[in-house]
Design goal:
Number of domains: 2
Oligomer: single chain
InterPro entries: GH (IPR017853), Glyco_hydro_25 (IPR002053)
Largest sheet: 8 strands, mixed, barrel
Structural class: alpha/beta
CATH topology of the largest domain: TIM Barrel
Keywords: Membrane, Transmembrane, Transmembrane helix
Distance between the termini: 97 Å
Radius of gyration: 26 Å
Number of strands: 9
Pfam families: Glyco_hydro_25 (PF01183)
Helix content: 40-55%
Family: Belongs to the glycosyl hydrolase 25 family.
Order of helices and strands: HEHEEHEHEHEHHEEE
Shape: globular
CATH architecture of the largest domain: Alpha-Beta Barrel
Number of helices: 7
CATH class of the largest domain: Alpha Beta
Strand content: 15-25%
Strand order of the largest sheet: 1-2-4-5-6-7-8-9
Protein name: Lysozyme
Length: 253
Amino acid sequence: MAMGATLSRRTGAGADWRGRVARWLRRLAALAALLLLAVGLALWWAARWTPPRAKFPLQGVTIDAGNGAVHWGSIKAAGADFAYIFATDGADGVDAGYARNMAAAREAGMRIGPIHRYSLCQLATDQAANFIRHVPRRADALPPVVWLDYDDRCPDRPTRALLLSELATFLAQIEAHMGKRSLIAPGPNFEADYKVTRGIARTTWLRRDFFPPDYGAHPWAMWQANDYMRLPGAEGTVGWNVVRPEGMSDEQE
């Protein structure tokens, strides 16, 4: 009788233990489902968020070959007033979609401008020659943009004095070709190390997702506000940009 009671208590304890484990597993599963839902909602929100039009009436996209065969009518219908398209990279790189995107965006009636990815590993004159060779001068083009960021393909880290000197050479040559002054677009880490906006007197385009950037020496004229934007008409994500209403001078426009 005593042995039966002992076995019964052990059986009951085992069942109670298994019940507690099952309840914890159900709670963990529910928590995981909530976390997945929260992540999904955050990604959904990030893929659609843009700064308010009332504050920034002029907004547009950044496009490169990674966005595939872009349907520019859909991009325009989604609210893009202009587009900056990656054109050249260093001394010999050309974005595979540049010529196609420029022609199609222009045909769709969009204002467009080219972007050059500046390389710390190549001479400014060689990079300018690459840009001039592939980007034609057009009076209706937006000011060219020099994209300044670190690149895993380039380990060089020149002194600030050398970078500013080379960058000034590059800007002088492409601006003589384009007939208008450029914008410079340093990433936050690049700007922290080289303080380009203090050494180069050009309008700035800064980058920070969802919150206005504050890392330049001067107020920004353009802001890449969302690098996670998804639009009908383009594969993957695009950069979504806004213009500060008072940020672009007549000379640059």
